[in-house]
Amino acid sequence: MRNESELNEINQIAPFWGGRNNNMEYPNDIKPLTGLRFIAASWLLIYFFWKRLGLEGAVPDVVAFGYMGVDLFFILSGFVLAHVYGPQVEAKNYSHKGFIWARLARIYPLHILMLSVMIGLWIVGSKLGFTYDASAFDVSQIPFHIALLQAWGFVNSDGWNFPSWSISAEWFAYLTFPISFYLASKFKNSKIGGLFAVSALFVAIYILTALIGKMELTNMTWEGGILRIIPAFMAGVMLWFVGRDIRLGQKAAYAGVFASFLMLFVAMTIFKSPMMIWFTLAAIVFFFAETSKYENGGICSNKVWVYLGEVSFAMYMVHLPVDILTCKGIMKFATAFHEKHHYICFFAGMTLSLIAAITAHELFEKPVRNFMRTHTPSWIKKGKKSLKPVENAA
After folding, report:
1. Nearest-CA neighbor of 357 among 30, 37, 63, 68?
2. pTM score
3. Which among 116, 168, 114 has a CA at the least distance from the CA of 322?
4. CA dihedral 134, 137, 317, 393 (to 10 degrees)
5. What is the chain's Cα-based Rg?
6. Residues 33, 285: contact at Cβ < 8 Å?
7. Angle, nearest 10°, between helix axes 69-90 and 225-245?
8. CA-CA distance, 129 to 329, in Å (whole number)?
């Protein structure tokens, strides 16, 4: 038994470092991670629309690595889905059919809507005299997009609503979720070993894709995006196991957030290393989640941040159609803007993407998702009863 002086010492450091004897559980809804999704989406959109500024290659490093916002989404997805469905798996109350239906309700309706919009824009634009890259509007690819297989190596180019490649990769992670969770659970009594294993998996795939495919893993999309999500999703699941069994002090959690963003900046601007960036993104997810364990709800957890996080999926999915309708339209018809049209394209693209995302979320994405979840097919309902999924599951 510890003596009084030892207990006093522990009590002095506990507010910073936390420990195992505190309330370690995450809240049902980890709001900071919902807010973090908006940061990831904004980073991606700035990266995408930056080229509209026409600055002839003057791209800040922070913007140039914006494509890795997708990796942040992948890590978030693994963490949140482990948090929502992991307890069901452990309680032997998990229904994979129910899980897949809930995930399908989350991503598929908006994906099909945006694919339809892109097909419509291609038809109308062709009649109006716009020119398109033929490989980006290859009709033979449409069945793969409908089946969410466009990131599984079955197509040979970017196509249609290109950002949806990441939804295809997510679909692979959903289908294999029980495997990911099972593998991560094998390290629940040796979490350091689990983190090393996930790290080794990422490094191995990163090196192999570079040596064999001559590609950077964190830049792969249609070429085989499922390879990109495997270590990221696994990292998210493993980080949930770690966070469930410890609790950092509030100051340590916020210090971790600050230190992670600082390291991210260093990784982007000094080392320019996608591999280092990937690890700092994983740290950001972990420390953001840790801040949720306190009464104030954590960083980026107020109503505005949470709502923006809720519409981030739509924001990501609509930005290519928005780009075509605004930027390409301005560049073709609004010649009076001359050089200034570049800046108009950038700010119009960013602003209209958010407006379109809110509209799509409120009028289509959320109503259809709720309808699907309240009208689950009878063949899915049979068997084990699933717990109600968290609304904001990634």
Report:
1. 37
2. 0.90
3. 114
4. -120
5. 22
6. yes
7. 50
8. 12
Confidence band of 289 (pLDDT split at 50, 70, 90): very high
CB-based contacts of 37, cutoff 8 Å, min separation 6:
73, 76, 309, 312, 313, 394
Contact 30, 285 (CB under 8 A): no
pLDDT score of 295 more than 90: no
CA-wise closest residue to 69 among 218, 214, 230: 218
The pLDDT tens digits for 69-113 are 999 999 999 999 999 999 999 999 999 999 999 999 999 999 999
Q: Quick one: CA dihedral 56, 61, 67, 69, positive or negative?
A: negative
State residue 326 phi and psi, 5-degree precision.
-100, -65
Length in residues, the chain = 394
By the 8 A CB rule, do 317 and 55 touch?
A: no
How far the first Cα of the chain sits from its last, in Å, is: 44
Report whether 41 contacts 69 (CB < 8 A): yes
The position carrying tokens 């990769």 is 169
If you average pLDDT over each of 4-8, 308-312, 320-324, which comes out highest? 308-312
* Contacts of 263-267 spanning 24+ positions with Cβ under 8 A: 265/62
Q: Give CA–CA dist 320/287, Å, rounded.
A: 32
The whole-angstrom separation of Cα 226 and Cα 168 is 8
- Backbone dihedral angles phi then psi of residue 25, each to the nearest 5 degrees: -70, 140
* pLDDT of 10 higher than 50: no
